[in-house]
Every structure is written in C-alpha cells, then in structure tokens.
Write the structure tokens for this entry.
Amino acid sequence: MLILNFTHPLTPEQQEQIERVSGRPIEEVRDIQTQFDSCQPIVPQTVALADACRLSPREWQTLSLLIVPPSLNTIAATLLAEIHGRTGYFPPIVRICPSRDLPPRYVVTEIIDLRTVREDARLRRS
C-alpha cells in the first residue's frame, strides 16, 4: 500500500504499527509538505497539496492508499474531499496519538475506514 503522509515523518516503529494494524505491507511512504498560508483561500492550497502527491488520475483510482491526514481540521476535511473527488471514495486514514510515556512518543492508535463510516451513517438518515 502507498501511504500519503501529510504530517511529521513516520518512524520505523509507526510504520510497523501500521502494517500490523492494517495487515498489509507498506510499499512506499510519501511525505507531503503541508504548509498553508492562513490568509489565503484554502481550496487552491488543498488542490496544490493533492497535486504534490505526484499521482496520475489512473493511480489515484487504482492504487491502495492510506492517508495520514494533516492535524489542522479544516485542511484535513478539505483534503479528504479533494481526495474523494480524485479516487471516487473516502480512503482509510491513520490516527496517531501521543503515548503516556515520558517523553511522549506518538503511536498509531487505529486505522479508520471512512468508507464504512459513511455507509453506516447513511443507514441513520431516515
């Protein structure tokens, strides 16, 4: 699977955790620099962020993707909408949280299948 990482570089330990939780090997990790100008419109910056992934339209639609979203909520939400438009589905995302260790380490907490979240939510529309 290809990981598109929009946050801090993943440690070898975090990559092992992702493989263990997902049950799939990581083929490649792409670290995408996520710097936004808060005084400029967010959508054009998000499009540029997705373009920085260097994926062709075919690759967006055929590769097995796992997303480590940026931590800023408006960027993450807008980026997921952009990715959905390119892939045709919501990709799974990685949730990373600080551990209780001192000094704190960041560990993979879960992989969230957004497609399943969406499908389950549709059942609650009525």
